[in-house]
Amino acid sequence: MVMKHKKIWLSIATIITVICLALVGAGFYFFKVACVPGQKSFIAANTTQIKKTDPLYKEKKWYAAAKKQKWYMQSAGGNYRLDANYIPDGKSKKTVIILHGYMNNKDTVGSYAALFHKLGYNTLQPDARAHGQSQGKYIGYGWVEKADVKKWIKKIIKKTRAKQIVIFGVSMGGATAMMTAGEKLPHQVKAIIEDCGYSNVKAEIEHEAQDLYSMPAVPRFPLVEILSGINRIKVGYFMGDASSVNQLKKNKLPTLFIHGNKDTFVPTKMVYANYKASNGPKELWVVPGAKHAKSFVTHPKAYYEHVKKFLAKYVK
């Protein structure tokens, strides 16, 4: 009888061990999918091709032809060389930092550089660490990169003596902008514009697990928790701590929130949590018919006017 009980408990222990090892293995697999740079099956490949049928054809042609200065900087941590394009606009003392999205690069936000150049801004488009021509081992989803943005701000002030700086970002770049907004920033930073950024990294990962992989509540829990633990060991933070909402609670800067009402990649509902959290002057534009990161291309003229009117209030 005793031997029989031992065999039962041994079988149970073996099953539990196998399940735990399987979950940890799955955690490492999804860490590689989510946090290690490389081509992702769920992200369209970047292209430099410009089609005349593109609503942003003129903006993209302008960017392709624009004379760009190469700027380099060491990352705030990790000793990585970061790469950026700087496009000056005459003697303007206004500069915008344009932050790209997940697995994109500085050139994929060229149309936004054209928009801000038209408004009289110098533009700086950095490649986030582990993206484009910047070095890096892991994707930090904005939580790590916010320290790099602070260094870029200091570099802009030192090199150009800019008096007014705006931080703009799309998708992961939008989240990075919001996360940066909660930091102590130089007085030259006057406003934030975020387009379709997520409210929290963990919440976004959980959403993608459900949306892309149709993963039910179990094993989504505890798999996301395991992934978050691996991220803490390798990247330095738990995903639940990487919160745009919590950073915005410390934000006093004027902020424009933009989000497409057809966004299923970063759910539109997240913008309402972000907007509610911000403690500075704020505006919200939920863009009709726009999918993820498609608000500008869906309504180019309205997008330009919203940005123009917002900045006219706070950047003189």
Describe the structure.
The protein has an eight-stranded mixed sheet with strand order 1-2-4-3-5-6-7-8, sandwiched between helices. The protein is elongated and about 85 Å long. Helices cover 45% and strands 16% of the residues. Helix 6 crosses helix 7 (217-234). The chain is built from eleven helices and eight strands.
Fraction of residues in helix: 40-55%
Number of strands: 8
Mean pLDDT: 95
Strand order of the largest sheet: 1-2-4-3-5-6-7-8
What Rg, in angstroms, do the CA atoms define? Answer: 21 Å
Taking pLDDT < 50 over at least 5 consecutive residues as the criterion, the unreliable ranges are none
Distance linking N and C termini:
85 Å
Shape: elongated
Percent of residues in beta strands: 15-25%
* Helix count from the secondary structure assignment: 11
The helix/strand series, from N terminus to C terminus, equals: HHEEEHEHEHEHHHEHEHH
Largest sheet: 8 strands, mixed
- The assigned structural class equals alpha/beta
